[in-house]
Specification:
Blueprint (H helix, E strand, L loop, with lengths): L7 H8 L2 E5 L5 H11 L2 E4 L6 H5 L4 E5 L5 H16 L4 E4 L7 H12 L6 E6 H5 L20 H12 L2 E5 L3 E4 L3 E5 L12 H12 L10 H21 L4 H14 L2 H11 L1 E4 L1
Parallel strand pairs: 1-2, 1-3, 3-4, 4-5, 5-6
Antiparallel strand pairs: 6-7, 7-8, 8-9
Helix pairs in contact: 2-8, 2-10, 4-5, 8-9, 9-10, 9-11
The structure holds adenosine-5'-triphosphate (ATP) and 2-(4-methyl-thiazol-5-yl)-ethanol.
The site of adenosine-5'-triphosphate (ATP) has 22 residues, from strand 5, helix 8 and helix 9.
Length: 275
């Protein structure tokens, strides 16, 4: 039965979960503002000297390797280990993971670090394909894969890693390897603003935050995060002459959308197939 207390976005706005980001230098401000607009509290803490202490306060940890270096990789491993001790969900954006050895090795080490927490991998098709033993086919940080069996690749990645997978693009696929949700919401203008993929990772972390008491499954929570971004992007695009206005308008729509509207949309558009 739906009531105000069971609507996930309403609970998020009431509790304002603290989302610890260790993320890239390109899109950090968009992510902080996106989390605030949606109803959470962002925290960007990177230093090796304080990250283990800081992560204990977090309701979820985001790891985004967009502008990775050796120091960041060290800090990320410390944070993930600590998050796992506290059973804090870890949501990983493996930006361009197939491109360099540093990225591949760091992600492999993070995935093997600690076992107490839900781990989620959120990336575009080329990035997720790397976890399904497929060849990296991205172009820098962008990674569409026309014609590929996206659902099959996402499910295979979930089975091989034991992680919840959120694959972004024209189609979004959210799967734990058993239960799968496919979304067709969103707008092509999203690909013209850097960081909309990073933002889908941050919102996924927000919806999976530890402090939330919702009995929804992780797949259902992550699907709501992606749906929220998708429907807000559609509204923002309709009101924007170009990608600059769109980026600002997207924050406005994340701020304005209600929990009830999100639930109504979920019932209308989610294609759920237990396989
Ligand atoms: N053609 C499209 N139609 C609808 N939605 C799209 C389209 N392209 C991207 N999206 C949406 O944009 C968001 C970002 O996805 P994308 O796959 O472009 O991420 P990314 O490559 O990791 O981006 P970035 O590195 O800039 O953060 C997702 O929410 C996705 O659903
Ligand atoms: C453009 C870019 N380069 C490294 S990270 C990043 C932001 C999108 O992932």
């Amino acid at each position: 039965m739906r009531n105000d207390k069971t609507i996930l976005l309403n609970e998020i706005r009431h509790k304002k979960p603290l989302i610890h980001h260790m993320t890239n230098q390109v899109t950090m401000s968009l992510l902080a503002n996106g989390i605030l607009a949606a109803g959470g509290s962002p925290m960007m803490v990177h230093s090796e000297d304080e990250v283990a202490e800081a992560v204990r306060f977090a309701d979820a940890l985001v790891i985004n390797i967009g502008t990775l270096d050796a120091a960041a990789a060290r800090s990320m491993k410390i944070a993930v280990k600590e998050a796992c001790e506290y059973r804090t969900p870890v949501v990983i954006d493996p930006v361009a993971v197939g491109m360099t050895k540093l990225r591949r090795n760091t992600i492999a080490e993070i995935l093997s670090e600690g076992s107490g927490s839900l781990k989620v991998i959120c990336g575009n098709a080329a990035e997720i394909a790397c976890f399904a033993q497929k060849q990296w086919s991205g172009k820098g940080v962008d990674g569409e894969m026309a014609g590929a069996d996206l659902k099959g690749i996402a499910q295979s990645a979930a089975k091989q890693t034991g992680c919840l997978i959120v694959m972004t693009g024209k189609l979004d696929v959210i799967t734990d390897g058993e239960k799968t949700v496919v979304l067709e919401t969103g707008h092509e203008m999203m690909a013209k603003v850097t960081g909309t993929g990073c933002l889908s990772t941050s919102l996924t972390a927000l919806f999976l935050a530890n402090s939330l008491t919702s009995s929804l499954s992780s797949v259902e929570k992550a699907a709501r995060a992606m749906l929220m971004l998708g429907i807000c992007a559609e509204k923002a695009a309709a009101a924007s002459p170009g990608s600059g206005t769109f980026a600002v308008q997207l924050l406005d729509e994340l701020y304005r959308v209600s929990g009830e509207e999100l639930e109504d949309m979920y019932e209308q558009v989610v294609k759920e197939g237990a396989l």
